[in-house]
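Purpose: get a first structural picture of the assembly so the mutagenesis plan has something to point at.
Setup: two entries, given in the order below. No constraints added.
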Amino acid sequence: MSMIEFTNVEKYYGNFHALKNINLKIDEGETVVLIGPSGSGKSTLIRTVNGLEEIQEGQLLVNGFDLHDPKTDMNRIRKNVGMVFQHFNLYDNKSTLENIMLAPRLVLKRDEAENKKIAMELLEKVGLADKAANMPSELSGGQKQRVAIARSLAMKPKALLFDEPTSALDPEMIGDVLDVMRDIAKDSSMTMLVVTHEMSFAKAVADRVIFMADGEILEDSTTKAFFDNPKEARAKKFLSQVEHH
Amino acid sequence: MALLQDNFPTFLQGFGYTLLSSLIALVGSMILGTGFAIMQIMPQKWVRKLGNIYVQIFRNIPLLVITFFFFLVVSKYVKMSGFTSGTIALMLYTSAFIAETVRAGILSIEGGQMEGARANGLTFGQAMQHIILPQAFRVALPSLGNQFINLVKNSSILAFVGGLDLMYQGNMIAANTFETFGTYMIVGVMYLIITLPLSYYIQHLERKLKQA
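Result (C-alpha cells, whole complex):
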C-alpha cells in the first residue's frame, strides 16, 4: 500500500512555480532519498507531505488522507508523519526528556509513566540517556538532532520526513546522526523520505533515489541503478560534482 | 502629618480604588493584550488585520479620550460609573501596548520551534501555550514591567470622571484644605507605595527567570 502518493501536484509561491507536475508514489516501509541541486524544490516537496506547505493543484494522499482537501484534519496526518528539520527546532524551554514527552502527552494522551519509559528508551536508542535532564542549549548540534529524531519517534509515526538533517552539523557530528537514521531504516514498517547531500548514506540505506531539479522530478530509480548508471544528464553532472568534493 | 491624619480615611479610600482599578485593568489588559498579540500572528490574514486594527485604534488615541468616550457616550446606553468607565478605558488602552510587547516577544522566539511543534502534532494553540508564550513572556518581561507601572500611574485618569481614586481624592482634599503642596506630596508617596514594590518584583522575576 502506498504511504505517500503525489498525483499531478503543482505548487506556486506567487508567480514562482516551485513544484511542477509531481507524480510520485512511496510505499509503506520504503526508504527514499531525495537529492538535487539547491533550489530544486526538494525541501518544498518534503514539506508538502505534512502540510507545512500547501499545494495548489493535483492530489496528495498521505496515509490515505487527501492533503488538498480543506476538510482534512492536518493534525491527524501529523500524528502519523514525523519530521526532522535541518535546524532541529527543539523546544528551547523544555529539557531533552520533556521535548520528547510533550507531544505524546498532549496529542496522544499517553499515560505519564509509560510516556517517560518510552522517552527514556528512545534516548537510550539515540545514545543520549545521560542528557535527559539537559536543556537544548547545553547540547551540541549532533546531540540536538538525535533528540529531535527521538522526539519524532515518540509519536510512533508510520512515516518520517528528514529535511537535510545533517546539513547544519559539524562534520564530526554527522556520523552519529546517520547511524541513528540507518537504524530506523532497518525497521521494515517505517516509511522514510530523506532530503540529503550524504551520498554514502543514500547508497547504503535508500531503496530508491529521486533526483529533482527546477521543481521537477527528473529521475526516479532504484538506488543501484541511479548511482551506477544515471539516466539524466543533469543527474550525472550533479553526481560528479558532489562525489568529487 | 495633621493633614494625613485628618483625611486618612479619604486618602485610604482613594488608594484602595486606585489599587483595585489597576489590578482589574492589569489582569484584563494582560489577557486582552496576549489575545490580540496572538491574533496578529495567526495564519489567517483577516484575523491578523482585525488584531492590528484594534491595536492601532487604542494605541493611538489618548487615554483621556477613550475614558470620556465610555463615561459620556457608552454610559448613555450601558449604565456605568466613572470608576467602571475609567477602568475599562485603562484596560483597553493598556492592552494595545501589551499586545505589541507580547507580539515582539513572540517574534523574538525562533520560528522553527512553532514549525517543530506543529510537525510534532501539536495544534497552534498548544504550541503557543506550552512552547512559544512561556519564552515570549520571559523576553517581554522588562517591557511588560514598564507597561504595568505606566498602567498604575495612568489610573489617575479616573480623577477626570469622578472615579474616587487617589488622584480624585487628592484633588478634593486639596480643594477643601488649600494645602496643595502637602496633599500632592502624600498622593505621590501613595503612588510610589504601589509602583516601587511592583518594579522591584518585576526585577526580581527577571533575575529568577534568568537563572531558570
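The CA atoms of residues 4 and 58 of chain B lie 37 Å apart.
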